């Protein structure tokens, strides 16, 4: 079992602590939180071991799970990697693309593995259809959330939209050609609602909307490709696949048939896969353990996390 320590015991950090404590692939050694009062509270409530410093924690473990505010990611990740320890780091990977590139170089130098916490890659609805998303040419994503002051230290693009940016980059096998975006600050000092149109070199267009001032939560993406429409509801963990094929000569009475202006007939049918329930956070943490143990590539590499950050920052720059 890999010895793991958690850096940061806030809302998400406590979830990571609980899951790592349950995991059969890790031995949870303890945690470090710079807020001593919060650290004592977490220790009293759950019984996890507190470390007096980040350095002490790093020295004792094989893997460090960084769940701290984004602004601190770069400095602490540098210490983890330089000590030769594997790194799981929450999204966004760092505050700037340049910082992310430096971490990637360091990880190669010290021969350690890193994974970024883009948890939607492990959403069971997305996992059940991702193999069916083939060369999408139009993508629409809506990620709307009710106001929560916990995420307002960063723009909504880095807080919410980056999830969809990463998911889209994982299925569109093409470089980004251009980005047009707009964002509005309503409650926070940084934009609370944003829309981005990302055009890829292969002609695919992705239209993304993110808001943290909505009256209801929504996390939906739709992928349109030749002869298929695929919908993923990340919140409800549901998906829908609508496909078209050439209509048979003698369709049955209940067949849905479309005919275009040229007289070509297509039959519409539903091909919805089963969605196997999972705990996405536990799965992302355990696949990282597998990557370390088997010396394979993590599901969300530091390079992929850096690219998602680069595109997110380009969205912000185009406001």
From TrEMBL:
<protein>
    <submittedName>
        <fullName>Gfo/Idh/MocA family oxidoreductase</fullName>
    </submittedName>
</protein>
<dbReference type="Pfam" id="PF22725">
    <property type="entry name" value="GFO_IDH_MocA_C3"/>
</dbReference>
<dbReference type="InterPro" id="IPR055170">
    <property type="entry name" value="GFO_IDH_MocA-like_dom"/>
</dbReference>
<dbReference type="Pfam" id="PF01408">
    <property type="entry name" value="GFO_IDH_MocA"/>
</dbReference>
<feature type="domain" description="Gfo/Idh/MocA-like oxidoreductase N-terminal">
    <location>
        <begin position="2"/>
        <end position="118"/>
    </location>
</feature>
<feature type="domain" description="GFO/IDH/MocA-like oxidoreductase">
    <location>
        <begin position="155"/>
        <end position="216"/>
    </location>
</feature>
<dbReference type="InterPro" id="IPR051450">
    <property type="entry name" value="Gfo/Idh/MocA_Oxidoreductases"/>
</dbReference>
<dbReference type="InterPro" id="IPR000683">
    <property type="entry name" value="Gfo/Idh/MocA-like_OxRdtase_N"/>
</dbReference>
<dbReference type="InterPro" id="IPR036291">
    <property type="entry name" value="NAD(P)-bd_dom_sf"/>
</dbReference>
């Amino acid at each position: 079992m890999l010895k793991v320590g958690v850096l940061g015991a806030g809302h998400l950090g406590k979830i990571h602590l609980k899951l790592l404590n349950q995991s059969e692939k890790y031995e949870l050694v303890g945690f470090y939180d710079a807020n001593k009062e919060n650290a004592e509270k977490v220790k009293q409530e759950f019984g996890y071991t507190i470390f007096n410093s980040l350095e002490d924690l790093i020295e004792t473990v094989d893997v460090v799970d960084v769940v701290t505010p984004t602004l601190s990611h770069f400095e602490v990740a540098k210490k983890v990697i330089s000590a030769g320890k594997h790194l799981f780091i929450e999204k966004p990977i760092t505050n700037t693309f340049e910082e992310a590139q430096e971490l990637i170089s360091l990880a190669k130098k010290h021969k350690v593995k890193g994974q970024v916490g883009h948890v939607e890659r492990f959403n069971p609805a997305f996992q059940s259809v991702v193999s069916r998303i083939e060369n999408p040419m139009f993508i629409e994503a809506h990620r709307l959330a009710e106001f929560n002051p916990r995420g307002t230290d960063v723009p909504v693009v880095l807080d919410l939209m980056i999830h969809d940016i990463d998911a889209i980059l994982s299925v569109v096998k093409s470089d980004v050609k251009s980005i047009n975006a707009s964002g509005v600050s309503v409650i926070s000092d940084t934009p609370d609602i944003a829309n981005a149109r990302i055009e890829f070199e292969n002609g695919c267009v992705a239209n993304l909307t993110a808001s943290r001032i909505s009256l209801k939560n929504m996390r939906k993406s739709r992928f349109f490709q030749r002869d298929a429409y695929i919908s993923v509801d990340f919140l409800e963990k549901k998906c829908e696949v609508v496909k078209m094929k050439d209509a048979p000569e003698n369709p049955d009475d209940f067949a849905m048939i479309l005919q275009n202006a040229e007289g070509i007939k297509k039959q519409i049918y539903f091909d919805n896969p089963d969605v196997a329930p999972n705990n996405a956070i536990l799965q992302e943490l355990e696949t990282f353990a597998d990557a370390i143990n088997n010396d394979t590539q993590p599901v969300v590499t530091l390079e992929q996390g850096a690219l998602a950050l680069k595109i997110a920052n380009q969205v912000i720059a185009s406001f």
